[in-house]
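Deliverable D4.2, example record:
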Amino acid sequence: MFIEQGINSENKFWKYIVGSILIIIASFLGQAPLLVALYYDTLVKGKPYPTSNDDIMRFFEPNLTLFLILISFVFVMLGIFFVVRYLHNQTMLSITTARAKIDWKRVLFSFSIWAIFTILSTVAFYFSNPSDFVINFKPIPFAILVVIGTILIPIQTSTEEYIFRGYLMQGFGNLAKNKWFPLIMTSVIFGAMHISNPEVSKMGNIIMVYYIGTGLLLGIITLMDEGMELALGFHAANNLVSALLVTSDWSAFQTHSIFKDISQPSAGLDVILPVVVIYPILLFIFSWKYNWTDWKEKLTGKIA
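Output generated by the structure prediction step:
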């Protein structure tokens, strides 16, 4: 059983607090390349130092900004490996899946189904509201974006999954000795981590329904499937395909995507619809394909 793999008499909850601090430190170390680049341009080239997060996101050419932000997740992933291996005496496989090895077919299936949905829905939005978009495609910057995104975005999304659906899921399982508490806590914390995104200030707090709902979906498929493979595929497809297809002046990432959304940002049905309609359909598809049963026990049961 996946969540039980992190539970033993030596794996106390205080270790997860210490481990989380070490992972946060790794995250700060990962920001060093961005800070070095900022100081170089401000001290050597004489550019004014950016005074806000939005200014930082627009300080460099978009591909360089994306690279400098995403490279920090390499440091975080190394931090996770160090914490899991040497603080908890576990393998990375043990916080990935209950299977004997990672099922890459599951990762690919999840990635494919969500990538196809994202592409089709984006194209549908474009043709139904063409005045809300402009063509942003530039061949060479887009090609560079594809390379950066394909290499580093899966590292970013996998890092987040290893933290929330792997490490912290098992950590809160150690604390609560049940499954519903880790599911709720990791979903809420995952959503809260996005509260500083510019989308929140533009659309309002209602968008947190989407972020927390997405965390809940990823937690459910991890517990039901006894591993993170489906969550890894979904998250990678969501971020990579979105970065390649659409950007906007108010999104977290400014990219050389194919389209640029120039509409006035607002949150309404488009925020609620995925959580209450699309995600349940996706759960049904996964449940049908992988023969999930005993939902109550897997999502709310006690941990021996």
